[in-house]
Amino acid sequence: MMISxxxxxxxxxxxxxxxxxxxxxAGPAWAQKVKTPAAEPAAAPVTDFTVEIPTIAAVGSxxxxxxxxxxxxxxVASHADELAGLTATSITIPEILVKATTTIGDxxxxxVITFSDLVLTDVTDGVAGSVKLAGSSMDGLxxxxxxxxxxxxxxxxxxxxxxxxxxVDATGQTELETIYxxxxxxxxxxxxxxxSCNFGPVTAAEFKARPLKYSFADIIGMAEAMEREGExxxxxxxxxxxxxxxxxxxxxxxxxVEFAGLDCKGTDDEDRPLTVAIKGMTxxxxxxxxxxxxxxxxxxxAVEGDGHFNIGKLEIKQTDLSGxxxxxxxxxxxxxxxxxxxxxxxxxxxxxxxxxxxxDMDVPDPETDERIVIGIGAFELALDAYRNGxxxxxxxxxxxxxxxxxAQTDDEQLQQLIxxxxxxLDLGFTVDASWxxxxxxxxxxxxxxxxxxxxxxxxxxxxxxxxxxxxxxxxNAAMAAAMGLAINHLRVDVTDAGLSDLILTTVAAEQxxxxxxxxxxxxxxxxxxxxxxxxxxxxxxxVGAAINSxxxxxxxxxxxxxxxxxxxxxxxxxxxAAESDPASLIxxxxxxxxxx
Length: 596
Prior knowledge:
Elements: H1 7-19, H2 26-34, E1 46-52, E2 57-59, H3 65-72, H4 80-84, E3 88-104, E4 107-124, E5 127-141, E6 144-148, E7 151-157, H5 158-164, E8 177-185, E9 188-191, E10 195-199, E11 202-209, H6 216-229, H7 235-248, E12 252-254, E13 257-259, E14 262-267, E15 273-283, E16 290-291, E17 294-303, E18 307-316, E19 319-320, H8 322-329, H9 337-343, E20 350-351, E21 353-364, E22 371-387, E23 390-404, H10 412-419, E24 424-436, E25 441-451, E26 455-464, H11 475-483, E27 486-496, H12 499-510, H13 515-533, H14 540-551, E28 557-564, H15 572-578, E29 589-595
Antiparallel strand pairs: 1-3, 2-3, 3-4, 4-5, 5-6, 5-7, 6-9, 7-8, 8-11, 9-10, 10-14, 11-12, 11-13, 13-15, 14-15, 15-17, 16-19, 17-18, 18-21, 19-20, 21-22, 22-23, 23-24, 24-25, 25-26, 26-27, 27-28, 28-29
């Protein structure tokens, strides 16, 4: 069977691939063989497929052997209606040999894929009670071979697959229906001259689908148009592509998929032993308009004698596509640049974020002779409550970000710590803020930075005048809304865990003294400065005393609490005036301080 660039012939090939999904692993290999370097246009590749099926054993089948042989040889489209009504006690195909000969110019190469012991049992009206494949192999690859283990599924709805892709009439069906249950794939191996990989088992409880609104011919036609039109696709092509994608993202539903991981070992370009491994992966259940979360455990990348990069756990959270899908569904058939610019924010999906934990990295620094050694206990980014493509609820944090400091650095702040005798840092931070639409406020629940054995600074507060326009589509209105924000309340908590000892010890040494002697001197200076700055404020003396207690070391935690005297709070113009007269802010806020 010769592949040519006609939609009809491609349709048959793709349809066959859908029904023999275990053959999909061959796709990347074939694609690699016909890949053409962009810099040097070459002759178009031509691939000739031949399929050999030595024997078929059909028991109680309503289709004869010749028809079944034609179907399993790839000619699904011509027999779609017959296949959708297939009934049989069992159909057994001991071996299917697929030979792909790819020719580019005067050069050609062969790849042979063997499917062993394909068995369908209890088939009624296009639904097989079970489908099993004993295994498959791929030989003749320029860069290796592959062996795949047994594959099995129950309640395989052949008619449903054909209806989903428009190969049979599914008029009137709009609900999701089960395509298969109890998917089990036992894994396999991939071997090349440089690397050998073992793939673990894959399991899934159920997969559902509904008929697409666009046929396979439509999809292939769109893909051909995109390829033909290159970097400047027409509005008609862009519109069709977006409408097809919007349809596909609402056409499927599944249970979670479990993958037992992979383990690859080989050598790098310098013949050093190389390891790439994932202990396990889970893909959450897919539902219409929702792309599921993906969690991976035990990621390992290591080159012996060079370094390693390991991640204990990585999670890419789910993405809600329902908003963009609704916008596309309401869009015209032809989508031009003006429409894209006008709706760009509305096309941003609601990505929920990502997280990772237990990061361990030890690699050479390409710019120096030193090594980059970093550990991260945990990191998380959580995004929620999207408004016009902007998350209005933000949470991000990191803990135990550990790294060694070099002897010298161009970073002034890091160099100051190095000069204080700090050789490594264990840092963390948190940002937690959310918009309250009903009250037009932004709650700053936590903005903090922590350095183990150094200090922690925590800021909380409330921003007012946070109107809906701040997240609106009108850029001028959004900028005006941002300029109208005001600070109504602000609280700062500082906890000293050893930083002041380092600073005072260094400063005292420069003065020929010690930290214990210098503390009360600096405490008195700090108190006097603050009292002078807050002259006229009701609690100036109390604030000064609290700061004295903190700097002197009698207290390890200092809290400063500032509340605006008038609503809505301190705005941009208040701070502009304070640039030339800082004391102008003192009369506009109530300040309290507590040291303990």
